[in-house]
Amino acid sequence: MTEMTAELPPGRRVRLSLDRDGIIKRIFMGVIALYLVAALALPLYAMLSKSFVTYGFDLARYEFQVSDETGTVWSEPVTAEALNAELGAVPADDLRSSSDGRLTATTFFPDFSFRSPVKYRMRGTTDDAPWLVGLDLKNTTDWQEYDSNTFRRINLRPVKSVGAQNYVEYFSNPTLFSSIQNSLYIAVVSTVLTVVFAFGFAYAINRSCMPFKGAFRMIAMMPILVPSLLPGIALIYLFGNQGMMKSLLIGQSIYGPLGIVIGSVFFTFPHALIIISTALSIADQRQYEAAESLRASKWRTFWTVTIPGARYGLISAAFVTFTLVITDFGLPKVIGGQYNVLAIDIYKQVIGQQNFEMGAVVSVILLIPAVVAFLVDRQVQKKQVSLLSARSVPYQPRPDRRLEALCLAWCGTMAVFIVGIIAICQYAALIRFWPYDLSLSLKNYAFDRMDGGGWAAYWNSIKLALMTAGIGTVVIFTGAYMVEKIDGFKTGRGLFQFLAMLPMAVPGMVLGLAYIFFFNNPANPLHFIYGTMIILVISTVTHFYTVGHLTALTALKQIDAEFEPVASSLRQPFYKLFARVTVPVCLPAILDISIYLFVNAMTTVSAVVFIYSTHTALASIAVLNMDDAGDIAPAAAMGMMIFYTNAGARILHALASRRILNRTQAWRLR
């Protein structure tokens, strides 16, 4: 018998249709992706475009005529370029300008007198030849006649062009170019020291039976609660020109690379410790037993088992530390002295010289090492493999008095360093007038009598922190849920993931400058938020978006993927599943995201230093402004207010978390 086979006639390819939940999820993800585009991608593009914009005076665009003293007979028309070639009044280098440059028209007339009856005519030879008469802008090819008194008020305006001239000028300036070398040197030295200190600390906590581990962990996290400017202030009181321990430096100055490195180790230490401690907390006891059975020495076991097992954590900690140091602005500003780094160059170009185009150039240069470090770190993390299997035996440290004594000494030294820095700041905040009147007083807390924004700046910071924690947590967790739980849509999810990871590679100061170019443009429909608290919230949420996103994804991946199909089969909309199952299960991560955003909103400086206004001044900015004004003790006092606020928020967070989690996470104990 022969089998009869029948083929279906060709037809259209079957495609799964989206249900209502799928459409809503895509809309939510699209809205948050649009937020990331408007808050990050477009500002960065505006900044990159601005870095290629140059301004200069094109003298060939202007023509002049001069009358005799009767004002009836006029000379032949002559361009400003021809007059300058004859007189040499303006060198070629001085013709380059910023967008706000001005060149007085009388420069080309050495015999000019505003009392003279001589009259002047002026016009543009092209349609783009602007000049100012006082504050009135003119741009015309028709002759305009002025008397001498009016002519002295005329200023030529620069014209815009596009090119790489800004980059050429930057790299041809030895002073500016040296900032790159200085930044890399500081970042490398600080990274090496921080990783070494953090590794020793993490090893003592995870691989020894040392006492007081809880206390050391708490002390190690204290630098996260203060702005990066605070260690600089403490070092000034310790080793500055009138410091109490200045003699210990043996003639060296704390103002410069030495102070920046010491302060950088302080504020990056907890970040490196968290990563390395996580790597060292996971180990297989069998590997150490095998090394012991092969009679390997402890030193060899350390280099052949411990270090290889923690190498990915070490590499990741190194890149995170490197990025934090090279992009930090506050510490070099306080204690850097004349030692220029890239972040300070941006501040000087924008705030000091109002040269926004050159500030954009330095920002792009600063962005390069941060992006490279981020990309290398991501590649390293992809190669990381699981160190524990189902048959693994968790590592249990054995008592060893010599090791415990060494670990206790190491952790004790770091604890004294951390507590000492903060204690010195508190001491400085209470002294009447260092070093002449060492009596204690609260007068340094009278912030309303000093520059910097007063107590209003402190309350603005709390308002910013609460808004950032509330709004940011909702946006970040919702975005992570949509990208993790959506079906299909691979391309869209990949694009969203890219946008969500991008903020980690963008320094805060670069983001702040990008916001000036993007949101301060009157043609931008979002221009209305510039100078308000809203833009500070958007900047802060965007700056710290990636860590919160990764935290949310980690929690969401722990939830069984079967919940969504089951809810769908029961005809339950996804938002009910989200509210009744997903949020309660992920509540620990949600609370962690909220306190992370709160603390960073209180301490951030670089992300907001360019975009705050007089009525939205912040406590961290007040520390910077008071230090600039020479009010170092009040700056320390405001820094300590930030520390105590963050410490209080941490305590309240811990208490609230315990109470809330006891009610929502009881299922974990069953």
From TrEMBL:
Name this polypeptide is given: 2-aminoethylphosphonate ABC transporter permease subunit
Bilayer-crossing regions: 27-48, 184-206, 218-240, 260-282, 302-326, 358-376, 405-429, 464-483, 495-518, 530-556, 605-624
UniProt key word Iron-sulfur: no
Presence of the UniProt keyword Membrane in the record: yes
Keywords, comma-separated and alphabetical: Membrane, Transmembrane, Transmembrane helix, Transport
Organism for this UniProt entry: Albidovulum salinarum
Membrane topology of this protein: Multi-pass membrane protein
Domain of life: Bacteria
PANTHER family: POLYGALACTURONAN_RHAMNOGALACTURONAN TRANSPORT SYSTEM PERMEASE PROTEIN YTEP (PTHR43496:SF1), PROTEIN LPLB (PTHR43496)
Family of the protein in this entry: Belongs to the binding-protein-dependent transport system permease family.
Subcellular location, record wording: Cell membrane
Main localization (coarse): membrane
Domain ABC transmembrane type-1: 180-377, 458-653
InterPro entries: AminoethylPonate_ABC_perm-1, MetI-like, MetI-like_sf
